[in-house]
Amino acid sequence: MVGEELIQRWVRRLRHEVPDAVAVFLGGSYVRGDAGPFSDVDFDVLVPDGPRDEWPAWLDVEGQRLVRVEVWIRDVERWLASRREPQPWAFELPSTEPLRLCWAADDSWRERLDRPQLEHPAGAPELDHFISDLGKLANAHSRGDELGLRLAAHDLASSCPALLWPLNPHPPVASRRAALLAALAAHVAPPGYRDDMVVCLGLAARPASGEAVREAACRLGIGVVELLESHADTYSELLSRELWASLTDGGLRRYAAQLVGILPPCPRLNAGQLGPVWCGIVRILSLVEGCEEARCHGQVRSSRRSRSGSGIGSRSAR
User: Fold this and answer.
1) Domain pair 4-120 / 127-296, same fold
2) What is the distance between the alpha carbons of residues 174 and 114, in angstroms, rounded to a whole number?
3) Which of 216, 74, 243 is nearest to 153 (CA)?
4) Mean pLDDT along residues 273-280
5) Domain boundaries, the chain
6) What is the β-pairing status of strands 65-75 and 41-47?
7) Which candidate, 89, 130, 235, 289, has a CA 20 to 30 Å from the CA of 113?
8) More confident residue, 292 or 98
């Protein structure tokens, strides 16, 4: 761990490196109090005019070892606006970044900027992305693409904390580890949620097979959708009207079941009951049901395989 002398030396140096700076903050583990012998020293340097968004880093020597100094240079408006942005490192749970103001250009800047932390809100529950990831998982499984399957399972699990947060309010987290522990501690969750999350995120103590990852992701997919359906009123203002309608009428649950290979009977729904996107899903489910009826009468001999879709809220890989 570094001493105060090194921190102050870098405050002086950063004022020289960034001559238009108006404030220098220390952040990260040295403010949280959990710095270790190999921790970076993190600074935020603010400038008055933007846009500015730079990430320089240096190596310094403390005693007989190297220390990495990482700096984020931002304009003041961008820095303040970040308070409205959910943080991916926190699985989009409410989060906080502890800060320590080390220097301000004058009292007016100190008064405007000095604060003990930056707080960030929870992210919106991205149910459409969650279902899209379940479709990617099914596609990867059908192709025998284990790497793609593991990536889809990881993305699906990463969406779960923000999806379940409305049912599991939690104080803001201040580190990646704290965010993971908060995500795994959700008490309103599907059966086996914690274990399945650990497997899908690749954090199990023992490596899981591709099939074990798929099974865990499928349980998460079905379990989360069923849980949200049973608490649909909580999500009425958090989801789009069309997506919430598909959640409450069971269409989303049937679609998720289709993706994981569990196909319950699908009732005949008409276009007036669902939005345009979900009408397409209903047609697909109707075709699948028709094939099942034909197979039961001996007219279809080939085995049925699960299908997947990526047309709902598809997104680029993160």
Assistant:
1) no
2) 18
3) 216
4) 46
5) 4-120, 127-296
6) parallel
7) 89
8) 98
pLDDT (tens digit per residue) in 54-106? 999 999 999 889 999 999 999 999 999 999 999 999 999 999 999 999 999 99
pLDDT digits (tens, 9 = 90+) for 130-185: 999 999 999 999 999 999 999 999 999 999 999 999 999 989 999 999 999 999 99
Report whether 30 contacts 39 (CB < 8 A): yes
* Fold classification of 4-120 (topology level): Beta Polymerase; domain 2 (3.30.460)
Q: Residue 247 above 90 pLDDT?
A: yes
Whole-prediction pTM:
0.77
CATH of domain 127-296: 1.20.120.330
Spatial contact of 276 and 302, defined as CB atoms under 8 Å apart: no
Q: In this structure, what is the dihedral angle of CA atoms 135, 141, 146, 147, given to the nearest 10 degrees? A: -20
